[in-house]
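Intended use. Records such as the Dihydroorotate dehydrogenase B (NAD(+)), electron transfer subunit entry shown here are meant for training and evaluating sequence-to-structure methods. They are not intended to support clinical decisions.
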Amino acid sequence: MICSQELVIENREISTGVFKLKVKGKFEAKPGQFYMLKCWEDGPFLPRPISVHDVDKDSITFLYSIVGKGTKLFSKLNINDKVQVMGPLGNGFDLDKIKGKVAIVSGGIGIAPLKYLAREIKDSKIDLYCGFRRDTYSIKEFQEHVEDIKLATEDGSLGHKGYVTDLLNPGQYNVVVCCGPEIMMEKVTRMCLEKDVQVFVSMENRMACGIGACLVCTCKTKEGNKRTCKDGPVFDGKDLVLDA
């Protein structure tokens, strides 16, 4: 794990309120892991958890949306500004368990950790299901890694008008992976469990420390509450307690 100040080499708005942040340096991460980022001295006290969108030999890329004061400050970063990075953190996807015919299902900014996953899955056939309210982003980045892309927008501006879950038939797949709004992930998980299909869920939750010490980000599992940051963020769907 590293904790250091690194240079910003790109911070670009790719859709309304959605930014791609690229930081220079030598980084390691498994798909599904995240880093804690901070770019302020007098702003919010705590860093913010941002999932890894991609990694190459001399940089790491994050995708984030403006949802509060911290991410608003991220959006003002310029090239050669410094950002504090700590990670990689959390448990990522177990690639040995993601084989065969695979469906990757995203909702909104939940697409962020799934590009790196799609790139790293080997010897499998992958379909991407992505849902957005209206504006779409990052879809083209998946094209070289997946067989088919199925798109849904709530306003019908692109693809299917409705929810991405309308398009998914879990019975066609060996494994389903999802990340997005909690209500979407709960529905995907239920659909998969009904068909006895393996499903992995990348949970999104508010975090404070990122290392499992503060217990802010607990989620319900059949074995009791677990820490999203330390025990997750990736969980086996059959282990989760679904409230919706």
